[in-house]
Amino acid sequence: MVYPADSVANPEVTKVIFSSVAPAFAFAARWHSAATSIVKTTDAGASWNAIASPDPHVWALEIDQRKGMCPNGSPLHFWTGLFTQYAPDTTKGGMIEETTDGGVSWHTTGFPKVQHPPSVWVIKFDSTSGTLAAATDSGIFIGHAPARGVAQNIRSQASMNLFPNPASRSTTLTLPAETSDRTPLHLYSVLGKLVAAQKLSNGKNFIDLASLPPGVYFARIIGISDVRTSSMIVLPH
Fold it and tell me: Distance from CA of residue 204 to its chain's centroid?
């Protein structure tokens, strides 16, 4: 692997991830490297260059594989997971950092929301459901990605109007008048697995939940000009 010169001798390369949208692009995490903890290639690995990094303790790395987050062929949206906690040079406020501009600027996600943020080993993002999962030394944390990049084309939960929610054996989904007839509804588990699908019509739609195990799910509607999502809790039947 070709990488920039660094003051740290033989830093560990903990993660390499290629973009499925822009195959020549890849990112690598290098621990513990203050100057080049994240490097990028734009020529399928022939050369690597450092990009802005939020922290020298980058261990985990994940990128958003959606085409909308890769305008002009350059991935913009990705996350880093930090390994060292309580260190003076660790980013304050959380152990998962996010960028929506290709690494020019970073902000903390505040995820996972625990009193003492654990070290992060692996991050996985499911672009279908918007689920962000983190494997840490304190367990696995799963939540809906809080990123602006994830939410910018998703309307609020109120626009779907699921009632009741939580629900046991069934719920009713009311679509706004401007929604096209025969709009598809997809239900996903928190791990991003498609568990149910049906066609909808304008107005009220009966959603049968009797076959679903209790838990948290994501309802997703693909419209003509946007995508709507809502979390949904299925109670024991």
Answer: 31
